[in-house]
Amino acid sequence: QVQLQESGPGLVKPSETLSLTCTVSGYSISSGYYWGWIRQPPGKGLEWIGSIYHSGSTYYNPSLKSRVTISVDTSKNQFSLKLSSVTAADTAVYYCARDGEQLGEFDYWGQGTLVTVSS
Amino acid sequence: QSVLTQPPSASGTPGQRVTISCSGSSSNIGSNYVYWYQQLPGTAPKLLIYRNNQRPSGVPDRFSGSKSGTSASLAISGLRSEDEADYYCAAWDDSLQVVFGGGTKLTVL
Q1: Looking at beta carbons, which residues of chain A come within 8 Å of B35?
Q2: Residue A73 touches chain B, beta carbons under 8 Å
Q3: Which of A45, A102, A110 sits opposite B100 (nearest CB)?
Q4: Residue A92, CB half-sphere, CA atoms under 13 Å: how many?
Q5: How far, in Å, CA of A9 to CA of B88, rounded?
Q6: Which residues make beta-bridge pairs with A53?
Q7: From the candidates B5, B97, B99, B100, which should be mutated to test the interface with A, based on the most A CB atoms within 10 A?
């Protein structure tokens, strides 16, 4: 059973960098697939942030690309998200997910973690 | 504003059949697979339909997906109270990004 768990600070100050980690169990990231981050502002819809392959190849949302870095650590079976220069608009529930055999095919999700941007 | 267009709301009574539409363009739905996600209140989204019309193991056959040209639809037959949720369509776009619809809130009356 593939399981994903997000971790990281729940509160980030404006202009600082949001950092989250997704720990995967039940499947080795090295075995394949893309791994993605999706966010959902309170009361709003889903927004794809980006996805990374186990080799490190990435795709990013063009609207966030200048501020986003997604990296993978296969030795820890984790992948991470960094979003710089955050504002209140970045307040959201952040989900990590396995991006299955086709990009956009998120077949396993973490429970999500709320990150609030506030001073 | 979302790249894929969905109606903000839909409703039906128990037992009815409801459909939710998702409109895109030639660069996303028109040339790539469509996915549907169900998000129950307070939970993470769940993959409901993949590759236009395939159901993951465990998803009831009351749920079905279809695609025609640059539009797609999710149909739910034999509507049940537990189907009350938000539904999102998604697709890969040839501009190298995943795009989502704005979501449809389904109410079971």
Answers
A1: 104-106
A2: no
A3: A45
A4: 22
A5: 28
A6: A34
A7: B97
How far is Cα B43 from Cα A110, in angstroms, rounded to an integer? 10
d(CA B78, CA B107) in angstroms, rounded, equals: 14
pLDDT digits (tens, 9 = 90+) for A50-91: 999 988 999 999 999 999 999 999 999 999 999 999 999 999
Average pLDDT, chain B: 97
CB burial of residue B24 (10 Å; 0-12, 13-18, 19+): buried
Residue B53 to residue A29: CA distance in whole angstroms = 27
Calculate how close chain A gets to B46, using CA atoms only, in Å. 7
The string of DSSP letters for chain B reads: --SBB--SEEEE-TT--EEEEEE--TTTTTTS-EEEEEE-TTS--EEEEBTTTBPPTT--TTEEEEEETTEEEEEE-S--GGG-EEEEEEEEETTTEEEEB--EEEEE-
pLDDT of B80 > 90? The answer is yes
Cβ neighbours of residue A115 closer than 8 Å, sequence gap 6 or more: A8, A9, A10, A11, A12, A18, A20, A90, A91, A92, A93, A94
Q: Cβ(B66)–Cβ(B52) under 8 Å?
A: yes
Contact A112 B44 (CB under 8 A): yes
Paired tokens of B73: 């639809």
Determine how many CB atoms are found less than 10 A away from the CB of residue B42: 6
Tokens describing residue B106: 């389904």
Are the Cβ atoms of A107 and B56 closer than 8 angstroms? Answer: yes
